[in-house]
Design brief:
This protein has about 140 residues and is mainly alpha-helical. It is about 70% helix and about 0% strand. It has 9 helices and no strands.
Length: about 140
């Protein structure tokens, strides 16, 4: 189902927008959309992601679905796995926290990383530069 109005948003935001749109469709009179979206309504997928500590298996359990079911759904709708979506969401939250001045350890532990070094490594891998350099660069842009 193409969603051209949200294609300009980053992937996690596109997915969240899709779920919000799906929840609205579920309230419509279209029987097919009610059937389809009632299985995958997202009352608060981002909240569940945090509760699951950004782990796909735990996320599936909290969603009341099997991991394999979520994998098929995410692959079909978003061309990514649930874990990839959770990682994107986690990095998005890390950016917000970093831009608000949070310290590296604080960000790492709030986002469920066991070691701040793992958070730093994953942040650098996804953004192409270390957190400290990213903070400086984002401060210049602001």
């Amino acid at each position: 189902m193409p969603l051209p109005e949200i294609l300009s948003k980053p992937k996690p935001q596109r997915i969240i927008s899709f779920f919000e749109r799906s929840a609205c469709l579920a309230r419509s009179s279209d029987v097919d959309s009610i059937t389809y979206t009632s299985r995958f309504q997202a009352p608060s997928w981002t909240q569940r992601a945090g509760e699951a500590e950004y782990r796909a298996a735990q996320f599936a359990k909290l969603s009341g679905k099997s991991l394999r079911t979520l994998e098929r759904y995410f692959r079909k709708q978003f061309q990514m796995t649930p874990q990839q979506w959770l990682d994107h969401l986690r990095q998005s939250k890390a950016e917000k926290m970093a831009s608000s001045g949070a310290r590296t350890k604080e960000i790492a532990y709030q986002l469920g990383y066991k070691q701040p070094s793992h958070f730093c490594r994953q942040f650098k891998q996804s953004h192409g530069l270390p957190l400290k350099a990213w903070k400086k660069e984002s401060a210049i842009r602001a």
